[in-house]
Design brief:
alpha/beta; Rossmann fold; binds 5-phosphoarabinonic acid
Length: about 450
């Protein structure tokens, strides 16, 4: 069975040496043991660690049956959620989808996303799109109280009930939330929605392999059993790749490389990087510490951020995701006149050119003082995306413990909410409202 692979050889020579990485070996092993033994900070959120191998065939079949019902009855399915209740599904669906799926006919519903922003035009346009069409809703919130998805759900639930009737609505709204707590749980119970539970011990950003990610991915027509099997490959394949990544990035961080740029050469991976940014940003960015996770889409961004990366402040390193093979084959034709001067690459596949752009970029960046780590995927298939997800999750847990933070909390995200609630006059925030208004 082919697998994803990591190569850190181009991280050496400038900021760090192999010895610097080796010196972090015992720290990385201790961090991995802390995860496994469950005796570190945030140990009540380790449900993701052996989640892939604990998922049963019956659970997958159950999710698939719900997905099939939505696929059969709906033209659109709106997945409502934000942060960890959004990014994983979006990342996987985009990585596996035709880039122009939105504009093409398909034999299943289009999966749309809402509740991941508070853009008034966005929700208006989405409501306009589904107007008059049978649609379903998957509403996802672990806490069941997050404002952004709650607003989107109130609007879309009302539209669906008005449009298709309450019976259709209650049969085609699926709620994924905490087992007992939160407003969404109460609402789902009252309306009789099909529900799935987000386990207590799985945090939002580690939840893509729970129904949070699996249901929307199945609705989009992808093979969730293969995705999970990929995660199991890495869960049970030994820690070496994750240790390598965690040691290398921590060595680079200690050498002053404060920003990690996840680079891809494949447009479908844009949102995989968004998922990765949340995973690493929320897990490591605390207590005044943490690598800043950034991302670029190459070669597109070589014509914008390429300048900064090649020549700007030398505080960055790159992790490049390379996809070994494309599913399609497009060959550059020869032209008799050759007015564009491209005959020197005539007969080559577009991907061969892309690969040379990738190699050329990596060499140029290493020469320019940007160490590279390379993670390769055999192809954009469920199996390898599943492997990549678990690889990043486990490496994140190890890396966070090496950094000395609790990788499983996110106290910082409460600050904006407190101010927003105070500004909106939410009951219970009267004191904060007075205080914030005095500042304005
Ligand atoms: O990783 C996290 O915990 C967060 O990003 C949450 O996923 C996000 O805030 C959404 O929370 P909830 O699922 O409770 O609506």
């Amino acid at each position: 069975m082919s697998k994803i692979a990591i190569n850190n050889s181009t991280a050496f020579g400038g900021a760090i040496s192999q010895a610097d990485v080796d010196n972090l070996r015992s720290k990385a092993l201790a961090a991995a043991a802390t995860l496994e033994n469950g005796d570190g900070a945030g140990n009540d959120f380790l449900g993701w660690l052996h989640l892939p191998s604990s998922i049963t065939r019956d659970e997958l079949n159950e999710l698939q049956a719900t997905a099939d019902k939505l696929r059969r009855d709906c033209e659109y399915v709106v997945a409502i959620g934000i942060g960890g209740s959004y990014l994983g599904a979006k990342a996987v669906i985009d990585a596996l989808s035709d880039s122009f799926a939105a504009y093409k006919k398909s034999n299943g519903p289009k999966v749309l996303f809402a509740g991941n922003n508070i853009g008034e035009d966005y929700i208006h346009e989405l409501m306009g799109l589904v107007d008059g069409h049978p649609f379903g809703i998957i509403v996802i919130s672990k806490s069941g109280t997050t404002t952004e998805p709650a607003i989107a759900f109130r609007l879309l639930k009302e539209q669906l009930e008005r449009q298709q009737g309450r019976k259709f609505a209650s049969g085609h709204i699926i709620a994924i939330t905490d087992a007992a707590r939160g407003a969404l749980r109460g609402l789902a119970t009252q309306e009789g929605y099909t529900t799935y539970v987000i386990p207590d011990n799985v945090g939002g950003r580690f939840s893509v392999l729970t129904p949070v990610g699996l249901l929307p991915i199945a609705v989009a027509g992808f093979d969730i059993a293969e995705l999970v099997a990929g995660a199991v490959d890495i869960e049970q394949g030994g820690d070496e790749p994750m240790l390598c990544y965690a040691q290398t990035r921590n060595a680079l961080y200690q050498a002053g490389k404060k920003v990690e740029i996840l680079a891809n050469f494949c447009p479908r991976l844009h949102n995989l990087a968004e998922w990765w940014k949340q995973l690493y940003g929320e897990s490591e960015g605390k207590d005044g510490k943490g690598i800043f996770p950034a991302s670029v889409d190459f070669t597109t961004d070589l014509h914008s951020m390429g300048q900064w990366i090649q020549d700007g402040e030398r505080t960055i390193f790159e992790t490049v995701i390379t996809v070994e093979s494309q599913s399609a084959k497009v060959v550059i034709p020869s032209d008799d006149d050759d007015l564009d001067g491209l005959n020197y690459i005539a007969g080559k596949r577009v991907d061969q050119v892309n690969k040379m752009a990738e190699l050329g970029t990596r060499l140029a960046h290493v020469d320019g003082g940007v160490p590279n780590i390379v993670i390769s995927l055999p192809a954009l298939k469920e199996r390898y995306i599943g492997q990549l997800i678990y690889f990043f999750e486990k490496a994140c847990g190890i890396s966070g413990y090496m950094l000395g933070v609790n990788p499983f909390n996110q106290p910082g995200v409460e600050a904006y909410k407190k101010n927003m609630f105070a500004l909106l006059g939410k009951p219970g925030y009267e004191e904060a409202t007075r205080a914030i208004q005095a500042r304005l």
